[in-house]
Automatic annotation (TrEMBL):
It comes from the Bacteria. The lineage of its organism: Bacteria, Bacillati, Bacillota, Bacilli, Bacillales. PANTHER family: 2-OXOGLUTARATE OXIDOREDUCTASE SUBUNIT KORB, 2-OXOGLUTARATE OXIDOREDUCTASE SUBUNIT KORB-RELATED. GO terms for biological process: cellular respiration. Its cofactor is thiamine diphosphate; [4Fe-4S] cluster; Mg(2+). This is 2-oxoacid:ferredoxin oxidoreductase subunit beta. SUPFAM superfamilies: Thiamin diphosphate-binding fold (THDP-binding) (SSF52518). Keywords: Iron, Iron-sulfur, Magnesium, Metal-binding, Oxidoreductase, Thiamine pyrophosphate. Residues 48-195 form the Thiamine pyrophosphate enzyme TPP-binding domain. Pfam families: PFO_beta_C (PF12367), TPP_enzyme_C (PF02775). The keyword Iron applies.
Length: 288
């Protein structure tokens, strides 16, 4: 059985020292081992941004996609090989800006993959511009007088779009983050895990200390029930989305794959693709 060390490779991450993404990488590796995966059972699909590099730092199948397109690629991988555990990953700019339409439709589609977003409220790779997750008044190179746009409440958005698994964590809480990724992998449907992953270079507002002062653990809220969608929405609004833990899970809704008519139990990778001559000629004749 594989251990988290088996999901390591020899590629050294070039994130800034102190970046929260290091912990996210470690949590993915630990979670994959804890649920019993082998490296060739896992595919990590990433987009553009600092966090997009993560697919090259994990010993598994990996694909570094273009900006905002990790989710359609990840969905295609899952549909082609249902035996793979597929994790899509990226940053808040990748998933909640240019890739937002893919995020919304992947949520409502409920395909059986896990999407981990490293949320630092800024564009890090392009040297510090405002993202859809930056608060109003946030000053960056792109908004020197402060952002005049409201921050996107992504967890509320996910619930509204019909998400069946919504969770949020903080990169310093490796134990909690690992457990949430394990739960997301085991969930039969689309799992969205937003991770507060501070950018130590360009975001001097949403720092580690800031999150420690402002985050509330859902486990500390008496009577919180992650199967109650209304309570989940109300709690998010009361805490301005600054909560960690399993926010909501719906175990009743079937996954996309369960609803696709004629979806073969045999993955394409194991399917016999050779056509008999008579069948080939018949197909060609349809276009003649």
């Amino acid at each position: 059985m594989a251990t988290f060390k088996d999901f390591r490779n020899n590629v050294k991450p070039n994130w800034c020292p102190g970046c929260g993404d290091f912990s996210v990488q470690a949590a993915i590796q630990r979670a994959a081992a804890n649920v019993g995966l082998e490296p060739d059972n896992l595919a990590v699909i990433s987009g553009i941004g600092c966090s997009g590099r993560i697919s090259g730092y994990i010993n598994a199948y990996g694909f570094h996609g273009i900006h905002g397109r990790s989710l359609p690629i990840a969905q295609g991988v899952k549909m082609a090989n249902r035996d793979l555990t597929v994790i899509a990953s990226g940053g808040d700019g990748d998933g909640y800006a240019i890739g937002m339409s893919h995020t919304i439709h992947a949520i409502r589609r409920n395909i059986d993959i896990t999407y981990i977003v490293m949320d630092n409220q800024i564009y890090g790779l392009t040297k510090g511009q405002t993202s859809p997750r930056s608060e109003m008044g946030f000053k960056t190179k792109s908004t020197p007088k402060g952002s005049i746009e409201s921050s996107l409440n992504v967890m509320e958005m996910a619930l509204t779009a019909g998400a069946t698994f919504v969770a949020q964590s903080f990169s310093t809480d490796l134990k909690d983050l690992t457990a949430l990724i394990e739960a997301g992998i085991n969930h039969k449907g689309f799992s969205l895990i937003n991770v507060f992953s501070p950018c130590v270079t360009y975001n001097k507002i949403n720092t580690y200390d800031w999150f420690k002062e402002n985050l509330t653990k859902l486990s500390d809220i008496d009577g919180y029930n992650p199967n109650n969608r209304n309570q989940a929405m109300q709690t998010l609004m009361e805490h301005n989305g600054l909560v960690t833990g399993l926010i909501y899970q719906n175990l009743e809704k079937p996954s996309y794959q369960e609803l696709v008519h004629g979806y073969s139990e045999t993955p394409l990778v194991h399917t016999e693709l050779e056509l008999e001559e008579d069948k080939f000629n018949k197909l060609v004749a349809e276009f003649m």
